[in-house]
Description:
It contains 9 helices and 6 strands. The chain is α/β, with parallel strands linked by helices. Strands 3-2-1-4-5-6 form a 6-stranded parallel beta sheet. β4, α8 and β5 form a beta-alpha-beta unit.
Amino acid sequence: MRYDLVVFDNDGVLVDSESISNRLLAAYLTELGHPTSYEDSIRDYMGSAMHRIHDLVLERTGERLPVDFDDVFHARVFAAFERELRPVPGVTDVLEKLTADGVPYCVASSGSHERIRVGHRATGLDRWFGDARIFSAQDVGKGKPAPDLFLYAAERMGVAPRRCVVVEDSPLGVRAAVAAGMDVYGFTAMTPAAKLADATGLFADMGELADLLR
């Protein structure tokens, strides 16, 4: 393999959560008086850390979201995860192959540590990701599109950025990986390819990923 570390985004790449979380986010923002469609949520917030939601709402409306916004939103999302969440089709095959080949991997997500773990427990992916393989925007304070999270993950895993490859499904994540000096493959199952045009390569089916990484 050409890389010494594979860095996975979480939502939409490992767990099929984007439709769930963006549906609930749009509904909650609308409930709070900030009309937001599912498509708006995907366009504006997919792949971003929670602080970006607060920042964009304040910038656009001059109003701050409630202080308990994050707690209420996450409670709704976690409850839905327990009922609905599934792993992205084919991702367990990828993880099995990386493990068999002895290739290090980790997850670097804009989501909180709690969100990552809840999703992994609900889908059975927790068997693949111990604490040492999980990195969150919480660890660096500045989420994607800043490169900080990916650089932090590479440092903790002991791999130079140029030897890392990122697997992403959001424009923000692709921008972060490019800024970190890493190759990045854009997963287009949910995101139009044109929005991930800055990626090193694109793929629409998780079954294609292993060949891209060789």
